[in-house]
Amino acid sequence: MDATAYLARIGADADDPLEVLMARHLETVPFENLSIHERDHVPLEDPALVEKVVDRRRGGFCYELNGAFAWLLGELGWDVTRCSARVATPDGLSFPGDHMALIVNGHTLVDVGFGRFAVGPLDLHSRDEQSDRAGVFTVADAPDGELDVFWDGRAQYRLDPRGRSLADFVPMAWWHRTSPTSPFTASLLASRLTPTARVTLSGDQFIETPDDGERSERRLSTDEQLATYRDVFGIALGAVPPALHPRES
């Protein structure tokens, strides 16, 4: 476990400000669920998460990405707290531990594991609008000391600022990896930021969402999917794995 190797993986320097470290991570380490469909269980432990991101040059979902990034920030001297969040859905808030986010230095929200979200840090003490490359974010007080995070007026999740350990997220990580009703088991997904857009491969659909411009989609053949995983996301696959729990259309 070497912070120098991690920094090289994301193309950053140890003295870079937090917003630069976040942007470099989001641009180089994809949000992806391929390990779930490959039945590749990665334990929620610092060595395993760092090995996956740095040595295997893979991405992951929230527990893996924010877990690994928390380790890096800690090695660089930042004060990092792992926190539980409940995601906002059309049916209300999800379960505690459904998402893991980070609080840095006691008041700054950092999240490199939520897919499309803020590219930079957010001040949890501020109740003003906070402009970000992705849009406008706001933070509001919620019951029991929790905090609601909004993006362009739409609720994203409710954050519990109390510190958690990686082990606290093991049950929900297991659920997300195995449940037929998990959003991660129905189809394959890989997504990352570029300097001007977000690119996503969802199933066989390649989606490009420019910062300034119109979203485009096109269907890819199996060979094109493999090439896109390799060339766009840095993931070399021998074959596209079948979905763990495909849902009927």
From TrEMBL:
The family this protein is said to belong to: Belongs to the arylamine N-acetyltransferase family.
Protein's name according to its UniProt entry: Arylamine N-acetyltransferase
UniProt source species: Actinomycetospora lemnae
Upper classification of the organism: Bacteria, Bacillati, Actinomycetota, Actinomycetes, Pseudonocardiales
